[in-house]
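Most newcomers find our protein records easier to grasp once they have seen one. Each record describes a single protein and holds just a pair of labelled lines. A learned vocabulary of local backbone shapes supplies the integers on the structure line. Nothing more is needed to start thinking about how sequence determines fold. The record below serves as our worked example for the rest of this section.
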Amino acid sequence: MRESKAELTDRLRREGKFDAFKKRREDLKAGGMAAGDAWDVAAEEFPSLDAKPDPGTLPKADRRALKGKLPVSIAQAAARAFEQLDCDWIKPADAPSPGAWGMLEWARSSMTARSEFYRTFVAKLMMPPQEETRKKKETAEAHDRELYKRLFGNLKPDPEADRAAQEALDRTLGRNVEGT
């Protein structure tokens, strides 16, 4: 269903594109186009971010090539979809699995779906390095605690003495100590 002029104007204002729309419309009118036609042409050049492509204009993908392909992990499917999101030449036969193809099609279906894909999957794909850093820090802290126990026995921790001992240990191991 086509947007009314009022709906289009409201949407373009929300999207921050109304001034660009007006300039394009005025350029078309200056080029000799009738005002109504200029509005229609400019409106087509500023589609809704949520607009889905007209299914009648898209060729149907032959999904038979997906038959018999084994599933891949969601992370692998998301990584593949991320890499192929803007590659319009990719066909179902190029997908590693039916799920990867479905994810790619969904992410391509609208700007809202693309945003949700980035928010849901791409952010999580980027998390492993952060998670790895956190685990390394935890391992180093556990190692330090074990070393402290070997050096000082099973004494009940004294926060002041503990801090001084930790700083001495850090200096011994060549780590940066605040204030030094």
